[in-house]
């Protein structure tokens, strides 16, 4: 039994010696890597400080995202304007469309008829390059940017662009959106059927 115990001790001594050698090799490597990381961190901090000299002058953070309300005082409220008309007008302006400036009409009619605000504008862009290529009847502008009711020699005439937006918005709401048909591809099958 003593021989077995002493043999195990010798084996453990050998592995302990190997571990000590491994540790002796790893210590300088770990020291080098930690020195390199610390140097890199200092360089980054210096670059940030040089590129932003006012960094040290910034105010300290408070614990509140906003100052707490005080009883008996009033709070200011910021009402942001609806950006949807501006988005439509910006798009029309970028493309040189005669419908530019009517973004509010598209949005008002979309809201009134419960349809997406961009839908009628998108049809106008697709059907007439947003009003640039509309049919005329005997030299008279049709104001029909939607290709609505245009087939053969028949051309649906509108009094002006606003009238067209109102009529087409109501039609889309009544015939499609109120019936649960909201996907553009499904609407297109009826709105612009294949030629016969």
Which consecutive residue ranges, at least 5 long each, have pLDDT under 50? 5-10
Mean pLDDT: 78
Radius of gyration of CA atoms, rounded to a whole number: 37 Å
Shape, please? elongated
Strand segment count? 2
Largest sheet: 2 strands, antiparallel
Count of the separate structural domains: 2
What is the percentage of strand-forming residues? under 5%
Textual characterization of the structure:
Keywords: Membrane, Transmembrane, Transmembrane helix. Helix content is 54%, strand content 2%. The chain has a two-stranded antiparallel ribbon. Helix 2 (84-94) packs across helix 3 and helix 3 (103-113) packs parallel to helix 5 (161-175). The protein has helices at residues 2-51, 84-94, 103-113, 119-128, 161-175, 184-191, and strands spanning 136-137, 140-141. The protein has 6 helices and 2 strands, in the order ααααββαα. The termini are far apart. The chain has 196 residues and is mostly helical. The protein has 2 domains: 2-57; 84-191, no CATH class.
